[in-house]
Amino acid sequence: MSDDKDTIIEELRAELDKAKKREQEYAENRKAMLYMLEDLNESAQLIESAKNAWEATFDAITDPLFMHDMDLNIIRANMAYMEYSGKSFQDIMGKPYYTIFPLMESPFESCLNAMKKEEEEEKKEEEITISSIKKTFRVMSYPVKDTGGRLIYSVHILEDITAAKDFEARLKEEISTTTDLLSIAEATASIKDIDKLMSSVVKSAARILKADICLGYVRSHGKEEFMPYYAEGLPAARLSLFRTRTLPETEWFLSEAINNKEILIAHAPFVDSGKTIVKRIYLPDFFFSWLPGMGSMLVIPLAGRAWVNGVLILFYKDTRYIPEKDEKVIKGVMHQVSTALEEARLYRESVDKAVELSHKIETVKVMREIDRNVLSTLNSDEVLETVVSLVRRLIPCDRATVAVADREQGVFIYKAGFGIDMPKGTLVEFSKTSAADLLSGGGVEFMPDLSTEEVLLQLEKRFLDNGFLSHIRVPIVAKGEVAAVLSIGSKKAGIFKRDDLATLENLANQIGIALENTRLFTDLQELFLNIVKVLSNTIDTKSRWTMGHSERVTNYAIAIGKEIGFDDKTLDDLRIAGLLHDIGKIGTYDVILDKPGRLDDEERKMVMKHPGRGAELLEPIKQFKDISRWVKYHHEWYDGRGYPEGLKGDEIPLQSRVLAVADTFDSMTAERPYRPTPGWDRALDELKKFSGTQFDPQVAEVFLRVIKRDKNVQPAC
User: Fold this and answer.
1) Which uninterrupted H or E stretch holds 130?
2) Phi and psi (nearest 5°) for 133?
3) Secondary structure element (H or E) that encloses residue 50, with its range
4) Is the dihedral of CA 66, 67, 70, 71 positive or negative?
5) Which phi and psi (to 5°) does residue 508 adopt?
6) By three-state DSSP, how is residue 391 classified?
7) pTM for this one?
8) Domain ranges of the chain
């Protein structure tokens, strides 16, 4: 029994020793854990300190800086980025950066390339311009990869280079001005040909003085008038008016500039210059009535030692005053160019004196003038009108006509001419005129005396009945085929000579070249318009509710524009603006366009972005500079409650006000997923009701007048 107790005691002691050892081990472990916790706490403090220092450095960078993950969502951004975006950190985190700042249709190229794994470089740079804040940034992109080389996120820094770009632009402008001045200096020093001299001077002057239109005239020797020589910026439709009208020295604005040998500035009567002027001079309302919409005119007399040898007339659409530095440049160039013109004139006279007959001298001059007119226009009707108006200066005649051959209908179409009572567009069947003989074999038709001809067809008999005894016909060939016939006639028999025939053939050759050029240009115009229509249809077919919307809006807008009196160029631009006015909806979700109920605030905001997006898409295209503005503001209200900028009244471009009426009227007369069509009568009532608030009252009145006159107005696009 005693032995058992001793055994138990020994076991208990052993257990007690083990417990003491375990307690000692636990104590040591606790001490080690305390040390470890102290180390971890110290490390955490160091990490927090480093984090704070890193964040302070991050936010101290003055350029916008942000990071995004592989889904292009923002995961970190500095204070500068937040300020530029105009949103809080909570509003930008986790959002695609290109929907926040900079606001773009798609991400940076570097991001797209990285996602496609097309680029391997570590650093990328690209340049973007944000028109809304008038800033240009250099975007530097840094891909960040894990240890396995896999791209995990990207860092972008947007360096503001606006000032540098502005300086670069000013430097380029100064270089351009200096280059133009050197061009004028070289031209005046070496060019003896007045045409080339005036071409160089007019182009350079237009660039230096930033004129919308610059016309160059040279004094006609021995006459008190100035001859048109070269035009820069003049619409093609106005070229024939410029080239065929001399500028009399007695015109008051020219007389004043010549007598004073000083630059003259004239302004449109409606322009408020905001400056105090001793003497207000208004734009001439007669001589340049064929140039509507001009706000200022600058007349620069090219005064030499004895007299004024030429004149430059520059037009601006807005009010312009010439800076002092530009005025000094102009005065320095005036005398230099005038002297060169005088020398060129003397040189031309010395060449002309070598020509034996005065008629040949006149022929050379007129042929050159016709060449300049024919080869520099892309309107076939204008080519024909110009040639016919000048042909009598080449050949003494009482009648001149041009008729285009339409082989499908078997007729000639009378296009231009004088001396015969025949409306333009008159059709003459091939069987009723001997001109048809020229269509197959080319050749010419020379009849010295129609009264001696045994057989005359209907048209030639009509010529004879009207007193015309002799005539010449020559074919106009374009692309190897007789496209038209040029004809002249006289009431005197046998008046035409072989030289006249040769002159007419030369002229027909030039017309043929010009007609081919105009055909190619017309084909390009049609191709361009068809592409625009396809794009317009693509926009409209995003929703079945908007099918045909853009074309109908265009039809209404063109009808309004014609009633207002827009010129052809403005109507062409308005046609494109109408077709593309909703191009910004390319980025709008189809579900919003097809939503059967009212849009919520977020959806409405998304839809309201489409005018601005449309302008951003069109603005980079040089030819769409004005069109992009019209598209941008076609949802502005006349009272200022529209969008995107809340413009009002005349702050809104007139063409945008026209589009607003056309767009709203079509929307009110078409079905939508959330309502049936209100109908024409209701739409017209709404148009009247909101005239002066949503709509320009004058534009609304014009539209109502057009609709009343023709309810089914559908002008062709």
Assistant:
1) strand 124-130
2) -115, 5
3) helix 2-60
4) negative
5) -65, -40
6) helix
7) 0.37
8) 1-59, 65-142, 167-354, 359-518, 541-709
Nearest residue to 317 (alpha-carbon basis) of 212, 387, 455, 404: 212
- Please report which helix (H) or strand (E) contains residue 51, including its range: helix 2-60
**Chain segment 355-394, per-residue pLDDT in tens:** 445 556 666 666 676 666 655 666 667 777 877 777 777 7
Q: What is the pLDDT of residues 460-486, one digit of tens each?
A: 898 888 889 888 888 888 777 888 888
Fold exhibited by the domain 359-518 = Beta-Lactamase (3.30.450)
List Cα–Cα distances, 426 to 173, 392, 402, 404, in angstroms.
53, 22, 11, 11
Residue at token pair 């292009």: 72
Q: Which residues contact 691 (CB under 8 A, 6 or more apart)?
A: 697, 700, 701
Q: Which two tokens stand for residue 444?
A: 């010419």
Class level of CATH domain 167-354: alpha beta
Taking the C-alpha atoms of residue 579 and residue 536, their distance in angstroms, rounded to an integer, is: 5
Which neighbouring-strand residues pair with 475? 485
Distance CA 105, CA 96 (A): 11
**Alpha-carbon gap, residue 170 to 10, rounded angstroms:** 103
C-alpha to C-alpha distance for 636 and 653, rounded to whole angstroms: 10
Answer yes or no: same fold for 167-354 and 359-518: yes
Residues 6+ apart with CB under 8 A from 552: 666, 670, 714
Helix (H, G, I), strand (E, B) or coil at 144: strand
Q: Within 13 A of 386's CA, how many CA atoms are on the CB side? A: 34
74-86 residues labelled b (16+ CB within 10 A) or e (exposed): bebbbbbbbebbe
Tokens of 533: 């229509």
DSSP string, 230-274: EEES--GGGHHHHHT--EETTSHHHHHHHHHTS-EEEE-TT----
Neighbours of 603 (CB within 10 A): 16
Helices (H) and strands (E) in the chain, counts: 23, 17
485 neighbors 405 (Cβ within 8 angstroms): yes
Please provide residue 357's backbone torsions phi and psi, each rounded to the nearest 5 degrees.
-110, 135
Class of domain 541-709: mainly alpha
**Are 448 and 436 within 8 A, CB to CB?**
no
